[in-house]
Amino acid sequence: MSVRTLIVDDSMAMQAIIRRRLLADPAIEVVGTAASADEARAQIKALDPDVVTLDVEMPGMSGLDFLERLMRLRPTPVVMLSTLTAQGAEASLTALERGAFDCFDKTRLMAGTDPACTSELTELVRAAASSRPAARPAAVRTAPPVQERASYTPRPGAMIAIGASTGGVEALIELLSGFPANCPPTVIVQHMPATFTPSFAARLNRLCAPTVEEARAGAPLAVGKVYLAPGGERHMEIGGSGDRRHCRLVEGDKVNGHRPSVDRLFHSVARLAGRDATAAILTGMGCDGAEGMKAMRGCGSMTFGQDKATSVVYGMPAIAHQIGAVAEQLPLRRIAARLLAECAA
């Protein structure tokens, strides 16, 4: 069965480019195009597409405002097309918070006929068709409630490692909103472009009680700190031991198609933290993190996987569960409490 796709973009030329890219995949059918929110609304009602590709900037109602309304009234998998500049990254993060399946760099579509670009876009659209977007509340959450854990004390040497990909932006906001200001040192790999991670770290820092920052080489892992791996050029690992662990940013080829890779992080945590560490693998496409989490479990770490019902894409946690890396599967809302309990004094 083909993936019925609606293209929403105010540029006729861009509509043609997107259509050509999508139709390179025989599994995708372009059922219509729209140049504005009003046209898109009518087309969605008439055509009931499996996936919508949506431009961020449109005349009248913006793509972000239309996305918010669509996810509230008629949840549909949406792939946002935006420029991955600093300004575009902010808009893309907002789109991901509002329920977009993922974002794709629009400028790549205009740069010739790169087969890799085409295959990445079509893979994203096919994956979006299999996702399960949920209805959104009338008001978009801007500051999730931070749970009070005044009596919480982390165990000396305890730490948390987390991996996420597609759907991870919203998942991490929800999970970290349950962390106290004195949470165990926490390291995170979230698959996203380099232009996204500074903005995402800053956004998490505003929304959550702990201090969240983009990791830098040599940064000591400290209580109350959350370290987000920078996107793009290097892998994040940990170095040191005991209460003197630190972040390492290391050169290396992509692992499972990603740099930074969750597997690289988890393997380093297994080697240097062992039973002191606790890990969670969240929503995401592919298999990154599964083998590293298995190594962690083999070294005595407690490991958690997000369950299928609450995952936007039940890929990474599914593979981890299948190979025996996950000790316990949980809905997203319960993972923060279990991570903290495993690290408590």
CATH architecture annotation name of the largest domain: 3-Layer(aba) Sandwich
Task: Report the radius of gyration as a whole number of Å.
Answer: 20 Å
* Shape estimate: elongated
Superfamily at the CATH H level of the largest domain? Methylesterase CheB, C-terminal domain
DSSP helix count? 12
Q: What value does the average pLDDT take?
A: 92
Number of domains: 2
Q: Strand sequence of the main sheet, in spatial order?
A: 8-9-7-6-12-13-14
How much of the polypeptide forms β-strand, as a percent range? 15-25%
Helix content: 25-40%
The computed structural class is: alpha/beta
| CATH class category of the largest domain | Alpha Beta
Say how many strands there are. 14
- Could you describe the largest sheet, including whether it forms a barrel? 7 strands, parallel
Low-confidence region ranges: 139-148
- How far apart, in Å, are the first and last alpha carbons? 53 Å
CATH topology of the largest domain: Rossmann fold
Order of helices and strands: EHEHEHEHEHHEHEHEEEEHEHEHEH
Family: Belongs to the CheB family.
InterPro entries: CheB-like (IPR008248), CheB_C (IPR035909), CheY-like_superfamily (IPR011006), Sig_transdc_resp-reg_Me-estase (IPR000673), Sig_transdc_resp-reg_receiver (IPR001789)
Subcellular location: Cytoplasm
Keywords: Chemotaxis, Cytoplasm, Hydrolase, Phosphoprotein
